[in-house]
TrEMBL record:
GO cellular component terms attached to this protein's record: plasma membrane
Every Response regulatory domain range: 533-647
Annotated protein name in UniProt: histidine kinase
Organism: Actinoplanes aureus
Domain PAC: 215-267
EC assignment: 2.7.13.3
GO molecular function: ATP binding; phosphorelay sensor kinase activity
UniProt superkingdom: Bacteria
Length: 656
């Protein structure tokens, strides 16, 4: 019985060792390491030798069990079976020694699952572990850097749950909204929005929960101190590994300053476009006014001729009076056009604003009506500006008349003068002014007011809201032209049903200037010409005939030319005692003609006339002090007085 158990045990052990050997050899061979992985090969060899050794023991046990005859058994023993088994056991021991020598030489500390790892494979595993650790360290460093960037960025970064509870709050959010992280974490994000913003916020979160990828929009959010701030929001959903939405990130950027800058730029562009439109209209209107003034001069003077010849016909005189009145109205209209286009020759001087306000107040008290309560508030300190006094008066009268028309049922009109300091960044000035202190005129009423659309167009020429026949649309365009010509600006504030305030800003005069002006023309008859020769240069034939008739009746000898070439020929033949020339003519200008004649006769008196100077009388559109100018249309008395005054100022007359 023991022999059978011994046989069975050796067979089982043999099979087990053979199976272990196969389990080692097959994966090592598949990995291509059968030759290189000597430690695995040595291990497999141990199990192989053990399996063979136990196989030999099983053979001998089998022989015993089968009771081989003793003689034959001795013969078999003689053949060396026991020795074979013993030698094989020695071989197995040698393999074991070889295995332990390898393990000791490699210095391999075997762990779980590492019994078949060779040193080169272990090296590669170590390198892989090192790379994995380096990747983990880099990822941690990246996350730390990203967290630092998010924390210190100027943009607000806020994390919320799908239901809108705040879960993350960076430093930018604290600076933008004023709340610390402790104050908002776990609170609903609706605390950062007003009523309108809360509904919008709920809609955005609902769309995020429904799977929308993200969105960007501009809105307003509420800060801790109660102020509203304009922000640009970018909302992005946050997903877990399964793809489910677990929250949202909101990046908010303060765009208040950017929107203000964009609005300021838009206002500047709008003012620039308006200035270009007004300049184009001004050129057109100025050209029309120039030609129209020539026609008015003809009509006015021929009317005066007929008045002189029909003194004994009262009915004709009455009709001519109506014609003269119409001419004066047309003259005022063209003067407004020229003022708007900055083409009217003006004579600026230092003007006391308080005196100007008082003078206009006295004029309005007699004419504005009892239903208007007129109040004048002068400045407590003297205010002096450099402007044409007549035009300054025209500005105040135009604004006062507009205010009266805006109060048909009565109201209050206030004229006020004071000082104002500007920082240069005002966006509602037309045109803008640099920083500084300015004199300010205010004309306020409690009338009907204007809509923003109307207020934006009131300075356009020919634009009016008055009924047909009640206004020309040039009043405020004229105000704009006068104020800008004086280096100032206009500001308008109006509300429907409340009233309107015009603010006129003008540069202050800080030093005393020469305010001497030409003495007014007296009502006396103009002096006679005593046969002096006047060279008249006018390209409008009808007007040239009118001027020649006036001068001839005034005692002058007249030479008439239509252009500079004819004038030079006439001067070369006859000479002259004075030159009366239009400013704008075909070919050479009147100014150039005068320069050529003054080279030949330096003391020649020169009188310019024009309905539209176009800047040819001075680089600043203002008459130079040494230039005599007569504005069209003019009367016979105006012409004769101005010509006499010009001759009296000439060097030749002074020497006499």
């Amino acid at each position: 019985m023991p022999d059978q158990i011994f046989l069975l045990g050796n067979l089982v052990i043999m099979v087990a060792y053979a199976a272990i050997m196969v389990a080692i050899v097959v994966p090592v061979a598949r990995a291509g390491q059968l030759r290189t992985n000597r430690l695995a090969t040595a291990t497999a060899l141990i199990f192989f030798s053990c399996a063979v050794g136990h196989g030999l023991h099983a053979v001998m046990a089998y022989r015993t069990v089968m009771q081989v005859p003793a003689a034959h058994q001795m013969h078999m023993d003689g053949t060396g079976w026991p020795w074979t088994s013993a030698l094989w056991d020695l071989f197995t021991a040698a393999v074991g020694v070889y295995y332990w020598t390898l393990r000791r030489g490699y210095g391999v500390l075997l762990g779980k699952g590492a019994i078949y790892v060779d040193p080169w494979g272990q090296h590669r595993l170590d390198e892989a572990d090192a790379r994995e650790r380096a990747a983990r360290d880099a990822a941690e460093a990246h996350r730390a850097t990203l967290a630092t960037v998010v924390e210190h960025t100027d943009d607000a970064v806020v994390g919320v749950t799908p239901e809108g509870l705040i879960t993350a709050w960076n430093g930018g959010a604290e600076r933008l909204f004023g709340y610390t992280a402790e104050e908002v974490l776990g609170q609903p994000a609706a605390m950062l929005a007003d009523e309108t913003g809360s509904g919008q916020q709920a809609d955005v979160l609902a769309r995020i929960r429904q799977g929308e990828r993200g969105m960007a929009y501009e809105t307003r959010r509420l800060c801790k101190d109660g102020t509203l701030v304009d922000v640009a929001l970018t909302i992005t959903p946050i997903h877990d590994q399964a793809g489910a939405v677990i929250g949202a990130s909101a990046v908010a950027r303060d765009v208040t300053a950017a929107k203000e800058a964009a609005e300021r730029q838009r206002a500047i562009e709008e003012r620039s476009n308006q200035a270009q439109r007004m300049e184009s209209l001004g050129k057109l209107a100025g050209g029309v006014a120039h030609d129209f003034n020539n026609i008015l001069a003809i009509i006015a003077n021929y009317t005066d001729f007929v008045v002189e010849e029909t003194a004994d016909q009262p009915d004709v005189q009455a009709d001519l009076t109506q014609v003269r009145t119409a001419v004066e109205r047309a003259t005022n209209l063209t003067r407004q056009l020229l003022t708007f286009t900055r083409a009217e020759a003006i004579q600026p001087q230092d003007v006391d604003l308080n005196a100007a306000v008082t003078e206009v107040q006295m004029m309005l008290e007699r004419t504005i009506g009892e239903h208007i309560n007129l109040i004048a508030v002068p400045s407590p300190q003297p205010l002096t500006v450099h402007a044409d006094p007549g035009q300054l008066q025209q500005v105040l009268l135009n604004l006062a008349i507009n205010a009266r028309d805006a109060m048909p049922e009565g109201g209050t009109l206030v004229l006020e003068a004071n000082c104002a300091a500007l920082d240069g960044n005002e966006v509602n000035m037309q045109p803008p002014l640099p920083a500084g202190t300015y004199a300010r005129l205010l004309v306020s009423d409690t009338g009907e007011g204007m809509s923003p659309e109307t207020a934006a167009r009131i300075f356009e020429p020919f634009y009016t809201t008055k009924p047909q026949g009640r206004g020309t649309g040039l009043g405020l365009a004229t105000v704009y032209g006068i104020v800008t010509e004086a280096g100032g600006s206009v500001n308008v504030y109006s509300e429907l049903g409340i009233g309107t305030t015009f603010r006129i800003y003008l540069p202050l005069v800080t030093t005393a200037a020469d305010t001497a002006t030409s003495p007014p023309v007296s009502g006396q008859a103009p002096p006679r010409g005593d046969g002096s020769t006047v060279l008249v240069v006018e390209d409008e034939p009808a007007l040239a005939r009118v001027i020649a008739r006036i001068l001839t009746n005034g005692g002058y000898h007249v030479l008439t030319a239509a252009n500079a070439t004819e004038a030079l020929d006439l001067y070369g033949q006859h000479g002259c005692d004075a030159l009366l020339t239009d400013v704008i003519m075909p070919g050479s200008s009147g100014r150039r003609l005068a320069e050529l004649l003054l080279e030949r006769q330096p003391d020649l008196p020169v009188l310019y006339m024009s309905g539209y100077s176009n800047g040819l009388l001075g680089t600043t559109h203002i008459l130079d002090e040494d230039i005599a100018f007569l504005e069209k249309p003019f009367t016979a008395a105006d012409l004769l007085h101005k010509l006499a005054a010009t001759r009296e100022k000439s060097p030749s007359h002074v020497q006499q």
